[in-house]
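Issue 218. Parser rejects a valid record. Input:
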Amino acid sequence: MIQIIKCVDRIRAPQGPATLLYYIPSYTLLSVNMNWLKQQVAHVAGTQEPIYGPSAVQSVAKQAETTPYTELQPQDLRWTAMESTCVETQTFYLMADTGHIGMAQVIYSNVAGIRTTCQFNTKVFYPDHKTPSLWSSDALDAYGFDERKLSFYADGCAITLSEDATSYSVKSAVNEESIVNITVSRTTPGFQVGTNGKSFFGTDPQHPWGSMRHAFWPRCHVEGSIITKQGGIDFKGRGVFIHALQGMKPHHAAAKWNFVNFQSPTFSAIMMEYTTPPSYGSTVVNVGGIAKDGEIICAGAANSAQHTEIKGDPENEWPEPGAARFLWSGKTDAGKTVNAELGGDLGQRLDRIDVMEKVPGFVKTLYAPQQKWELKIRLDGEEKAEEGILFSEATFIS
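Output the parser choked on:
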């Protein structure tokens, strides 16, 4: 602890297009935790945080040691809609029988409790790997939630959870280049790792200053279409739904991400892994699971994503992976050991996105091809292998 005597009235972020002021009351004697103060400066200014070390992350993996996962209940699908800095998303990943890969996503973003915005994003990849991918991103007006915060609404957009909490209706007419009308219905229970799916950030575990949470519907049936200017795309097929909340600045929580979505006739394999910045000890947190219709085979935090080959990008310094290996480990509800593996050449990437490309190196996402991989799963000593479609993302933030 340090003593500050009437020496800080306000902290000003670096001058720029959006200068923010963070006010600290001018008490005659103010007792401040130094780590908290440093974090608040970084929080407001958007600068790199100081080094807190890995002990400042209370990973959900600790919860998973005693409770690997819990099945989602309707209340677990509520929007948090924090009034402080956060990014909250509901994302629907779509794998059509036609070979198209799609994504529909709504984003709720709050900057320091000062400005809140919502955005609807649509992405479509074409099966010929030649047609340029479709990307639409539109600000939403007059956004809000139903009384229970289970459904989201805005002008021209609605994400509605069914009364029995087994399906979402996703509709958007905010962009004529991608008119969305799909229904995503889960065919197995949803899950969150541990008891609440959350990892916490902060030097005082009792009073964390940030959090990260993911909740999954790992295996879904999809009906409906996305209408583009070139015509309608039938998205009947399989899908995944993920509700995520980053209760802090995203680049303070994670420096890189790996996302895996594998769907086969029998199995679904889902993984979300992030590595914190050095300020939190470059700690790796991995959540995911294996499911089939009607059953979560296993889920938890004992998984890993490995880039077994780095081919790089000739146009920049992005560490683009050329091959990867993804591992899951857990137990069934009956206590039987489960191990699963995906591995192979990632091939030529589908796309790359440089978010804030005017700020070099800020957010970079690489989309791997939708290609056929084989999932090998060993359940209580018996091994099965099944071919399916893999969609993966690698994201680097600096």
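Fixed in the parser; the record now loads. DSSP finds three helices and 31 strands in the chain.
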